Amino acid sequence: MRRPTPQSVRRACLAAAAALLPAVCSTLPAQAASYGTPTIKLSTAYLSGAVGSTGDPTVTVTVAQSGADASALTVAASKTSKSAVAGTSDVSVTGSGTTRTVAVTAHAQGYADLTLKVTGLGGKTATTTLHFAASPAVQYSTDARYLTGASDASAAVDVGGGYVVVANDEDNTLRLYNGAASGAPVRTWDLDSALNADKEVDIEAGTLVGSTIYWTGSLGNNKDGEYKADRNTVFTTTVSGSGANTSLSFGSAYHQLRDDLVAWDEANGDRYGFEAATADGEIPKEINGFNVEGLEFAPDSTSTAYVGFRAPLVPPQAGGKALIVPVTNMDKVVTGTAAAFGTPIELDLGGLSVRDIRRNSLDQYLILAGSWAADDNSDPYALYSWDGVAGHQPVKVLDLPTTDAGGWESIVSVPDLTRPGARVQLITDDGSADLYGDGTEAKDLTHPEWQKSRSTWFTLG
């Protein structure tokens, strides 16, 4: 047998070494220098929660690292500026891969800056800050949800599938929310241009008839007693789709309903004092003021609308009755026809006035009754059932809690009131509330994620 030469032995050894090298290298530990610095980005840097709440809003965090699979990265809270409000252990991060969900459990009212850290391969890290604000605990907390993005919820319309369109009396934007969850609106519609409005319409009520939502401003002077033309507005939007797929388009508007009401009252003996209450310098939220906060249609009608007044009471004294004025041609009014009126309705709501009124398909009504005054947290609120018939008095079905922030402002929809255990969803206006204990009214908070109104489900009967 021929003996191998030194050259052939050397070539065989080199070939064997080359074949083994990839396998050997694959078993070596990765080198840190091959990975970049990870990145971490929040969907929003601001988040709100509430003590004792369930299902608070969350934020999404996106992480990445060059040279590494995102599933290998970890995210956790590493620091808090105020552990009494929320500590690092109160931050939960769920999910895997590029996007994770961050939730925070609040323990006390106030603010906390939370540092979130992503740790990548090679031991490399990066951080970002989540600015967290916590409001105090409320009654019925398990049935409460928080609608963020605005704090002055003033009217709500059920559009099906658990979704609700909410108006805010500090702007002219309509917001679509999932009524079963806390969080930001899923869609918004800014109507400033459509309404040709320079200031807020002060939307206070809305109701759905077919595919048309009728909305009304307060019609009264502003809080300083000044007439602002934009508030003298009723308008419509048209609904298409439903639930999360709801879409709104602007319909038409009318800007003289206040004038029509004043003229009607004067022609009928100035019974309600509308002319004096709308004079320059007159404050709307007075017992003899002029302020609209309810709008709903009469039984079996798509033309006669009940306009409910927060002020005045009738007579304008303690124990006075709530006032509803029927507009018998509201379907024509919104397209420019002067209003015609029916016989006014005076309801005994225990000295309270109309803050909202809502009808269901069975012509059962709920009236949200509250004070004519602006002191939303010191006066009683109650729900009354009614059949919508003039001369028939409403019946109180529930006293509402008043010790928490915000005033009860809107009824989302009316369940079948004959069904035992029927539940109704109400929404507060929290605009004047000091939600976080620093003396700042919610409407003046600089971050919309911290502005919020509260919705709560109540069981009737």
Question: Brief description of this entry?
Answer:
The protein is mainly beta and 461 residues long. Helices cover 10% and strands 39% of the residues.
Structure description:
By secondary structure, the protein is mostly beta strands. The protein is 10% helix and 39% strand. It has helices spanning 6-26, 192-195, 257-267, 274-277, 330-333; strands at 39-42, 46-50, 59-64, 74-80, 91-94, 99-104, 110-119, 125-135, 144-148, 153-160, 163-168, 173-178, 187-190, 203-209, 212-217, 234-240, 247-254, 291-297, 305-311, 322-327, 345-347, 353-359, 365-370, 381-386, 395-400, 407-411, 423-429, 452-459. The strands form seven sheets. The chain has a four-stranded antiparallel sheet with strand order 1-3-6-5, with no helix packed on it. A four-stranded mixed sheet has the order 2-8-7-4, with no helix packed on it. β12 and β13 (187-190) form a beta hairpin. The longest helix has 21 residues, at 6-26. It is elongated and about 85 Å long. The N and C termini lie far apart (106 Å). Mean pLDDT is 93; it is low at 16-32.
Shape: elongated
Provide the structure class. mainly beta
Radius of gyration (Å): 30 Å
Largest sheet: 4 strands, antiparallel
Which residues form runs of ≥5 with pLDDT under 50?
16-32
Beta-strand level of the residues, as a percent range? Answer: 35-45%
> Helix share of residues?
under 10%
Number of strands: 28
The overall pLDDT average reads: 93
Distance between the termini: 106 Å
Number of helices: 5
Please list the strands of the largest sheet in the order they lie side by side.
1-3-6-5
